[in-house]
Amino acid sequence: MQIGNVVLKNNVILAPLAGIGNLPFRLLAKEAGCGLVCSEMVSANGLVYGSAKTAQLLESLPAEKPLSVQIFGADPEIMARAAAMVAAGGADILDINLGCAVKKVVKTGAGVALMRTPATAEKIFKAVRAAIQIPLTIKIRSGWEHGGAQAFHMAALAQDCGVDAIALHPRTAAQGFGGKADWSLIAALKERLAIPLIGNGDIKTAADAEQMLRTTGCDGVMIGRAAIGNPLLFSQILARLAGRPEPELDVERHFDMIIRFLDASIAYYDEAHACRIMRSRLTWFVKGFAHSSAFREAVKQITCRVEAVTLIEAFRRRLTEKLVKV
């Protein structure tokens, strides 16, 4: 798959995940074979006005390349300046968020609110396109109403303004992540576009990804919530699309990955900060495992790497012993 002048190894893409898609998480997705990783959404205002916390979201490593960085905002000039900063920082693709339905974002006129103000969106597209040389993409929802008319209009507008690819999450703003994604809108939009279209929404298994590609004709699939705690999903999708058996969960490799994620998080933040975050994030990786409740409760108290690794290894041994006995 190709987006502008960026050639991807495959068409399986990590969605921007607010508060989740940091560098350590993206590295796991890339390790699992993901063709393109995307940052969590980055405030254009925060970048332009020098927020250190926002700037940290742009930190990257060669191992995750190519990288797409997603920005959000409602002011064309600020968005253009932020986009230029992202490009100068080494991002391979710049993405604009037109899909976030969180109230604090929408009330500023950003995110999915832009789908109600196409004139503002057009100014943003033109300003950002003029400010950067790297490929430009957007991520949209179906709009504020059922039927997809706003998505079709916004996509056509974006294409005319020089946007290189579009990702569509076919849920309305009011749906949030509830209800069912209407894949028929992806198929309908694909017929209207000359640029690549990436489908997003309700891909929980490799079979779902294959079905979306087959039934909608979209050029790529974007995986979001289903990848949280389960980056193996990327490997499973790639195997299925290639006609190979899907890899099964290997407990030893899975727990090795958890420790790598812990260590990458400590390197990205610092040990104390990372361990506070890991109190919730380590629980992602044991969802569905037998007897995981005790582990989930215990990790809520960790303060250092030694404590975290001790709990991880103890739970690994417990699972491995049960598998051996069986």
List the helices and strands and how they pair.
Elements: E1 2-3, E2 6-7, E3 12-14, H1 23-31, E4 37-38, E5 42-43, H2 44-48, H3 52-56, E6 67-72, H4 76-88, E7 93-98, H5 103-106, H6 118-131, E8 136-143, H7 149-160, E9 165-172, H8 183-192, E10 197-200, H9 206-216, E11 220-223, H10 232-241, H11 251-268, H12 271-281, H13 293-298, H14 305-325
Parallel strand pairs: 3-11, 4-6, 5-6, 6-7, 7-8, 8-9, 9-10, 10-11
Antiparallel strand pairs: 1-2
User: Structural class of the secondary structure composition?
Assistant: alpha/beta
For the termini, the CA-CA separation is 44 Å
- What assembly state would you assign to the polypeptide chains in this entry? single chain
CATH structural class of the largest domain: Alpha Beta
Briefly note the CATH topology name of the largest domain.
Answer: TIM Barrel
> What is the name of the CATH architecture of the largest domain?
Alpha-Beta Barrel
Rg: 20 Å
Order of helices and strands: EEEHEEHHEHEHHEHEHEHEHHHHH
Q: Give a count of the beta strands, DSSP E runs of length 2 or more.
A: 11
Helix segment count?
14
- Work out the helicity level: 40-55%
**General form:** globular
